[in-house]
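Sequence in, structure out.
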Amino acid sequence: MKRIKLIAINSKFIHSNTAVWYLHYTLLNQQIHSSIETLTINDTYDCMIRKVISDNPDVICFSCYIWNIEYVKRLIIDIKKIRQDITIILGGPEVTFEYEKLLMDYPIDVIIRGEGENVISRAINGDYTYGCAYIKDGTIHDTQYATIDNLDDIPFIYTHEFLLSNKDRIIYYEASRGCPYKCVYCLSSTSKGIRYLPLKRVLRELTLLAKSSVKQIKFVDRTFNLDQERTLSILEHIKNLECQCNFHLEIYPASLSKKIINLLMSMPKGRVQIEAGIQSTNELTLTSSKRFQNSKIALANSAILINKGNIHVHLDLIAGLPFESYETFIKSFNETIMVFPHMLQVGFLKGLKGTAIFEFDGYRFMENSPYEVLLTKWLSIKQLFSIKDIEGIVEAFYNSQKLRQTFLYLLSLSNSPYELFLKISTYNKNHYGSTHNIGENEKYKIIATIFSDIPLIKEYLLFDYLSTHKSKTIPQFFDYKHKLKEIAFTYFKKTGKNAKTEYKHTNLAILNFDKEEVYLFDYRIKDVVTDTFHNKIIEI
């Protein structure tokens, strides 16, 4: 009996890989045993190779993605040096398209192209007649792209074994495969149509996962809200589940119906979080990228959900898309951040194999993964570096959520949010060089220094600090003179509560926005959406 090993190399420990589990249970259903080895790119190379070749496998299958392909290339060369007779099988989006060069340059026995469930058992036995690319007699052969027409044929993977192996990790869930859209930058555009897992099976499996100790279930469906009625059924089910689980959904924000918006707004707080691709607000960019979306409606729908306050909303922009100049990107950035998403991801276009982005002239991408854009006809390298600087500041300062009220205030006063972040970036480069060198408390000091001429800036900063830190000590630069402990004990004695116990779990501050008032911050109550402690104004 062949010893088969399925290898997942994730980008972080918290991530999981469902692909190897689908293959594992596909083989098991055919009485073929396999083992799974889960690694991360943060493991040492020595650790990786030891774990991969332990148990003396006969067949090693790698699940290949943009974040791990360079590690896989290195591993397969060394594995073949150790044992020439080991069969090396690669699969996944990173090897499905430009397979010819990989087969010519690396000691790979076969590459599975497409969906591997109907291919894996034959491939490990040397049958490459479907869904495979391989070399025979010096010639590269390709036996089509593999797909599964009926998704109900894929095995159930969320067993006790799976849950135990992926404890404390994000659990990915696939309710559909494929995408009807043809966005030129997206790998999903290469699929033909969309196929759904039967709705009854989806609801049954979500119930099972919700009853486990899973903390987050992340749908990998490219457009969760594509089928409106199906979306409503799944959301209603999620809403009624008795669980502490969070469900992450990727949506097409412009096509959200009123029914879906209303249902999302009725969700228990923190039950759902949303990732919405705005990408750009430049109409020519969206049209040429085949991202047919009304950005005004997309942002308006996103704002409704953000303002409701029960759902964490994450918006995405992509720098480097066709016809996106520096000026139009700044406009896209300004319009997107002004709906005040809980997180704004400024991503950079990648030259993904198989996508239509290569049909545009003037693009230069990194030679190796992550294949990020270096130059376009519309953006110079200097301008891309400037956007990269802004991305770092947004990630370190805005997305941390530890300065949320301060940024809401600053942005409301700003004519150009991009210039606001550029100002922080310039200061940061002059004084620190890198956002990695900035301590958590230092960020408050930086904002206080840069915007010292803005009224109330220290009030907002102190409010944010006490909303996100369990600390009785206020940093010195706030120059805060009030004696908080005396105020707290006076208040708690007045309410008849045990002052010592209450003070242990709370903090107070006198803040003067419109008038001087006392704010109580309770560290026992946390907002699951903004990750901030509960606060209220009290009378002393």
